[in-house]
Amino acid sequence: MSDALVAAVRDAVAEGEFDVAVPESAVVFGRGGGVFESPVALRLGVDPAVIARRVGGVVAGPGFVRVVVSAGELVDGILGDPGYGGARVPAERWDEWPRTFANPGFSVRYAYARACWVRRWAREFGVREGPLDAGALEAELVWALGDVPGRAKQAERERDAGPLMFCLEKVAGAYHDVHERCPAVPRGDEEPTAVHAGRVGLARAVEVVLGNGLNMIGETPRERI
Questions:
Q1: In which order are the strands placed within the sheet that holds 64-68?
Q2: CA 207 to mean position of chain CA atoms
Q3: What pLDDT digit, counting tens, does each position of 205-223 carry?
Q4: In this predicted model, what pLDDT tens digit does every residue of 112-170 receive, in sequence order?
Q5: Which residues pair with 68 in a beta bridge?
Q6: Do both 162 and 110 map to the same domain?
Q7: I need a labelling partner for 102 at 20 to 30 A (CA). Which of 9, 11, 13, 218 fits?
């Protein structure tokens, strides 16, 4: 989303619609339900309608550029961008103990490990990634994933890892629910279905986002805990 907004500004400048310096990135906030908004036009002092038109969005509020994406589109975007959400965030750490879900340090690290396990299990069961048809729990997780880049940029801007870490905690909590209630691999005598394939892709998106997030705060993600 940030890259698309920057590209829109760059194209508008190249075509003479704007006369501004092209930013390196654009702040994007997830509003839930697949709605993402950016104040990029307000910060540049330009017409938001020009940017919105170029990214397939609309103008909202006092001049925010709003874009609505489906859960499947967002997951595909994450899977196509190994560096998704990357920013320069101050190093920080959670305590790892106690190893309970109430401890965010354990919850985030364990969620990453669980997502990695799904990749290995899927390979053993012969389940390939496919398009995600998100249910309510899965959609909640996807919107949490979509909020990570904006919080990472906020953490970079404020020189405080807190906003990113809180967002990673939300992702982890949502993923634990999905992992336990929306299995990505067949159980018992079940045959692999398109539903499983979509969930395998979702698990890999979680692996990408949490792995990048842990790297940003100075940790090496671990596939086993």
A1: 29-32, 35-38, 64-68, 58-60
A2: 10
A3: 999 999 999 999 999 999 9
A4: 999 999 999 998 888 999 999 999 999 999 999 988 988 998 999 999 999 999 999 99
A5: 35
A6: yes
A7: 218
> How far from the centroid of its chain's Cα atoms is residue 109's Cα?
16
**CA 151 to the chain's CA centroid:** 10
In Å, the largest CA–CA distance within the chain is: 62
- Same-domain check for residues 89 and 198: yes
For residues 158 and 184, give the distance between their C-alpha atoms in angstroms, rounded to a whole number. Answer: 37
Cβ within 8 Å of residue 89, ≥6 positions away: 152, 155, 156, 161, 164, 216, 217
* 3: Cβ contacts below 8 Å, ≥ 6 apart: none
For residue 225, tell me if it sits in a domain.
no
In a shared domain, residues 156 and 192: yes
Q: What is the pTM of this model?
A: 0.85
Q: Which domain holds residue 90?
A: 73-216
Separation CA 38–CA 3 (nearest Å): 12
- Within 8 A by CB and 6+ apart from 196, the residues are 122, 127, 183, 184, 185, 186
Asked whether residue 28 falls in the same domain as residue 138, the answer is: no
